Amino acid sequence: MLVKQSDFLEQIRSLIQSCIEEDRNAQRKMYELFAPKMFAVCLRYSKNREEAEDILQDGFVQVFKSLRTFKFAGSFEGWIRKIMVYSALASFRAKSKMHAVINIENPEIMEAGNREDVISLLGKKELMKLVQALPPMYRMVFNLYVFEGLKHREIAKELGVSEGTSKSNFFDAKVILQKAVVDSIRIANQNSSNG
């Protein structure tokens, strides 16, 4: 049975009000309703499932603290998503002393960077694993640019770096991902020809 959009919005409004009143059952219901989609967002910003779960938990704590500020203008799911992204940013900032450095001057990596369409050959799960394997700063810049649609000046402000650094990190992340895709395809081709 399909629920009318107006009925769904009224249910969400009622659920939000119950959560504001600290109704634990309502909070559990809201968590169950939105956690699966938000976990996917958190997973993109993390290096593994455990880190994503931590970001998700921190994000929902912030959601429940901030519910009174939701103005019922725009998408509630979008509002929650934004909080999850900011939770991921907060987690990144807390760990920002641990940036990995990669020598991007490797000729094989630079060659892979010239193949713009190569990432489109992967499925979502494979791409997610490759994004998670990026060094933290590259992962953050890549996600903020590609998935959140932020401009480099906005990313620079959020991460406390220059706009040029944001652009450079995005380029490097793309090159690394493209090289990983090329390597995956080469290995798959070798395995299929050997099998």
What does it look like?
The chain is mainly alpha-helical and 195 residues long. The protein has two domains: 8-94, RNA polymerase sigma factor, region 2, helix turn helix motif (Rna Polymerase Sigma Factor, Chain: A), CATH 1.10.1740; 107-194, Arc Repressor Mutant, subunit A (Orthogonal Bundle). 73% of the residues lie in helices and 0% in strands. The chain contains nine helices and no strands. Helix 7 packs across helix 9 (163-194) and helix 8 (152-159) packs across helix 9 (163-194). 26% of the residues are buried.
Summarize the structure.
This protein is an all-alpha fold and 195 residues long. The protein contains 9 helices and no strands.
Question: Which secondary structure elements does this structure contain, and how are they paired or packed?
Answer:
Elements: H1 5-20, H2 24-45, H3 49-66, H4 76-94, H5 107-112, H6 124-133, H7 136-146, H8 152-159, H9 163-194
Helix pairs in contact: 1-2, 2-3, 2-4, 3-4, 7-9, 8-9
Spatial extent as radius of gyration:
20 Å
Mean pLDDT across every amino acid position: 84
| Beginning-to-end CA distance, first to last residue | 48 Å
> What is the CATH topology of the largest domain?
Arc Repressor Mutant, subunit A
Number of domains in the coordinates? Answer: 2
Order of helices and strands: HHHHHHHHH
Low-confidence segments, given as residue ranges, are 98-118
Index terms:
9 helices, mainly alpha, Rna Polymerase Sigma Factor, Chain: A, globular, Arc Repressor Mutant, subunit A, 2 domains, 195 residues
